[in-house]
Write a structure and sequence with these properties.
Blueprint: H1 3-12, H2 17-21, H3 28-31, H4 39-67, H5 92-105, H6 107-120, H7 126-151, H8 161-188, H9 203-229, H10 240-247, H11 254-257, H12 261-280, H13 288-312, H14 317-353
Helix pairs in contact: 4-5, 4-6, 4-8, 4-14, 6-7, 7-8, 8-9, 8-14, 9-12, 9-14, 12-13, 13-14
């Protein structure tokens, strides 16, 4: 068979010899995406997950500041401590408050570095850059709320309505911070942006659960404040109903009367989360969606048990810290479950239509 004959057949089929010998052209928008598990994606994701883990430690430390009554350890000065950059001959409460400020201050430079890497690093994507930027913004907001508590002296033994409102908003800001921090790591590992409007089984329950966790957290922060300022003895010999009657009496402080709201709301939201985990797990029997759904279900049961123990033991400090940690983990897993479900739904839609899914960012 001669070369001339082959060339004529290719020409008849509409294929030129030049197209066969030309260098392949890649879609640069898709090519710049770091593949999951690649060194580029892995390095950034490790930094983001590390920041999230450190953030959880700082959050627990902040709770210890409240539990130990150290919120006024630096007086009404911020960012200085008693007017000094480094306090001299500090008391124990001053050491606790100052240490919390120092450990919190580390978050800022690390977050700035992560934002620069997200936007300027080779192969970074807009979705990662926006979540990294949001992480930095919420870190700044967290610092400003903390500064406001100190400067307005809404710390130590203050039992005002203003403090109750601010601590509730403070914890919700913390939840938003951990959410965007977790999503920075999640998408920084190379996952694609699925969009916010992608429907999937159980999506409505997950959204209700997200709002519910925010509300439960606000009431939990107020309850924890009440437990710190108005501690009670552990419940024994069926004394729970007697304590509840005393809490709801007209002469009780409003922080004491509000104690009942948190556990009731928490049980309702927990039921929604358990239903959501079962519903969403149908999307993917063995993949990341099912794995996150199982983790969510386990964490919800652990949180319910921890809440019961916390009430029975009258909120000891170690139980308060564990309760807060579990709440953060429930929230983080729930946020990731929402986006994992959206991503799986998008993948299923692309497979059923026979069209490849566009992996480029739309943010």
């Amino acid at each position: 068979m001669s070369l001339e004959f082959v060339t004529r057949r290719l020409y008849t089929a509409g294929v030129s010899v030049e197209s066969l010998t030309a260098e392949p052209q890649l879609d640069t928008a898709a090519a710049e995406l770091p593949a999951p598990g690649s060194p580029r994606a892995g390095g950034f994701a490790k930094l983001a997950w590390g920041l999230l883990a450190y953030l959880l430690v700082v959050i627990l430390f902040g709770s210890w500041v409240r539990i130990s009554g150290s919120g006024a350890g630096c007086g009404d000065h911020w960012p200085t401590c008693h007017g000094e950059l480094i306090p001299r001959a500090p008391a124990v409460q001053t050491i606790i408050e100052y240490t919390h400020r120092v450990t919190s201050g580390v978050l800022g430079p690390v977050a700035i570095g992560m934002v620069l890497w997200a936007w300027l690093g080779a192969g970074r994507r807009r979705v990662v850059g926006w979540f990294a930027t949001a992480t930095l913004v919420f870190i700044v907001a967290e610092a400003l709320i903390g500064a406001g508590l100190v400067l307005k002296q809404l710390v130590a033994d203050d039992d005002s309505v203003a403090r109750a409102v601010v601590v509730g908003l403070h914890l919700d800001n913390t939840l938003l911070l951990t959410a965007v921090s977790a999503l920075t790591a999640w998408f920084g590992a190379g996952r694609t942006w699925p969009g916010l409007g992608r429907p999937f089984a159980g999506r409505g329950l997950v959204l209700v659960g997200l709002v519910g966790v925010l509300l439960v957290s606000m009431t939990g922060a107020v309850t924890a404040l009440g437990d710190t300022l108005f501690p009670v003895a552990p419940t024994v010999d069926g004394g729970l109903f007697g304590r509840l009657r005393d809490d709801l009496s007209a002469g009780s402080h409003f922080l004491v009367r509000l104690r009942i709201v948190h556990p009731l709301l928490a049980v309702l939201v927990a039921a929604v989360l358990l239903l959501a985990s079962r519903k969403v797990s149908d999307l993917d029997a063995t993949g990341p969606v099912a794995s996150l759904a199982r983790k969510l279900e386990l964490l919800v049961w652990l949180q319910l048990a921890a809440g019961g123990v916390n009430i029975a033991l009258a909120a000891p400090w170690w139980m308060q810290l564990l309760h807060l940690l579990l709440a953060q983990l429930v929230w983080i897993v729930l946020v990731l479950l929402f986006f994992a479900g959206s991503e799986r739904s998008r993948s299923n839609a692309g497979s059923s239509s026979g069209n490849p899914v566009d992996c480029r960012d739309t943010l």
